[in-house]
Amino acid sequence: MTEDSRAEARSEGLDFIRAIVAEDLATGKHASIVTRFPPEPNGYLHLGHAKAICLDFGLAREIPNSRCHLRFDDTNPATEETEYVDGIMNDVRWLGFDWKKHLYYASDYFEQLYEWAVALIRMGKAFVDDQTPDEIRANQGSLTEPGRESPFRGRSVEENLDLFARMRAGEFPEESRVLRAKIDMAASVVAMRDPILYRIQHKAHHRTGTTWCIYPMYDFAHPLSDAIEHVTHSLCTLEFLDHRPLYDWLIEQLPVPSRPRQIEFARLNVTHTITSKRFLKRLVDEGFVTGWDDPRMPTIAAMRRRGYPARALREFCDAIGIAKRDNLIELANLEFHVRQALNQEALRRMAVLDPIKLVIENYPEGQEESLDAINNPEDPGAGTRKVPFSREIWIEREDFMEDPPKKFFRLSPGKEVRLRYAYFVTCQSVVKNAEGEIVELRCTYDPATRGGDAPDGRKVKGTLHWVSARHAVAAEVRLYGTLFKDEVPDPHAPGGLGAALDPDSLRVVERAWLEPALAEAAPGERFQFERLGYFCADPDGRPDRPVFNRTATLRDTWAKVAKQGGAE
RNA sequence: UGGGGCGUCGCCAAACGGUUAAGGCAGCGGCCUUUGGAGCCGCCAUCUGUAGGUUCGAAUCCUACCGCCCCAACCA
Fold this sequence. Notes:
Blueprint: H1 3-11, H2 16-26, E1 34-37, H3 47-62, E2 67-72, H4 82-95, E3 103-105, H5 110-122, E4 126-129, H6 133-138, H7 157-168, E5 178-181, E6 196-200, E7 214-216, H8 218-228, E8 233-237, H9 244-253, E9 261-265, H10 277-285, H11 300-306, H12 310-320, H13 331-345, E10 347-349, E11 351-352, E12 355-360, E13 368-374, E14 384-390, E15 392-396, E16 416-419, E17 424-432, E18 438-445, E19 463-464, E20 466-468, E21 473-480, E22 506-514, E23 526-529, E24 533-537, E25 547-553, H14 557-566
Parallel strand pairs: 1-2, 2-3, 8-9, 10-23, 12-18, 16-19, 21-25
Antiparallel strand pairs: 4-5, 5-6, 6-7, 11-22, 12-15, 13-14, 15-20, 16-17, 17-18, 21-22, 23-24, 24-25
Helix pairs in contact: 1-2, 3-12, 8-9, 12-13
The protein binds one RNA strand through helix 6, strand 6, helix 8, helix 13 and strand 19.
């Protein structure tokens, strides 16, 4: 890279990590890069991971001859399961990224890591500590006071070697001993106060089974795994910044095959959601949601089921950028990208969620016809379809007002509107039940307006979606709101996790009416229900009873006008 | 309180001492429209946490304050 192109790269406003990479390429420090996405298989991936994935894989994709590894950070058998490994791989792939042959597990390196631990002992830089967890904690000091050295810190290399070997051999119970680095109990960075490298866990590991009963800690395994894989740029979130001195210390002490560099960026926060695997797991375990893929969850699996396109997630991550300052992205920003992608891709269909019957008095009883409807005005290639029309149709209850305000240009007594792709109809009368509720609208239509245009050139202000009653398919439709009621949910709220949840996060429409073309929608298929929003067929649906999830509403200018007083 | 990170428009985020401080989201006007959708056009920081200083020139350098976040799991 020349001076000029470097300046150009700068002027393009690269984020600070891409700027560092560009610099490393420019100076010749690296000819290509290797990144890694290192999830722990103890839960499903969420929006925050999506940001990391887009960064790790996206960056590698941008630089010629570079790659990104998928490495499972499986150093804690107590919480990790194969189910999560499979889920994570599925989610990364769905997001649109490919690790090719570069699938790794920290557990693949257990033997090498053990040898390096032994090497540290030989150098006199690690020791076996017999203190209890409580003692270790008590001797750790505080943020303002230094810690105290372990009474076992002075053990001979031989004794340490012997003890560590016997730890591995399974001679000791859990919590009886740990291997610690010998650094500095007075360090102002707590992570450097003789950090624990290995602990005893008599637990089966999802991959190594019972081969091991000692497991390396993240702080030990991570930098060394990066080095083994020749990772050049090890990107992680800001909370690991304090661990970098230890990361670098280990890389310096040991004869590792490469010297990776850790760089930290700010984690993603989005309003009305939580990106903490721990709390998401509680929502699942405590039954607040139906599972990790409950469409209200911020997990990748849930967003997929809800109907968010992978592309929308990628573009969202792109748009929010990478920086080091704390951030709180408005949910509207995510929704914008979801709508933008869906507007371009989703086929249009008609569906009525809150039906009221409209009878066309002058339309011949028993007659029906097939009308042409455009599948996607944003994509001429999507073609057209036939929609059946008949004398009795369902329209949205909300599209009629008996005593409408000035700016309401939908249906009301005496008013003429267009039924999309069909005819102009005029409301002649309103039928009510004994309780005074509107049960039916009696209208007349103008046969000359077939298709939706008047030959005499007269205009109507409103266009309504509709479904022919005789041909309608009944479906269940699930309407989602935010899972949490506050912009910044407090999982520690007084009433428990449940108290932070929005009671209106799920509304089920038991019987919505769909146009027939929707009957055979396969799970995962996404549509725009005209004038209502984007919907995605859910796997819960059966052939005789489809189920749709509302992915997002359409922007609703009328709602805004009505709110501002236009509806008075 | 020890250490560290960060403070640019309501929310993100560029700007790397030198034109009127990019762009996106949100918002607000208008045009257009067989989705009150989409699209299009326009408006939206004389100002960069605060106060001083250096400089011909500062969001960018210096000093001091103020504020927010992270670190004391045998989690990652």
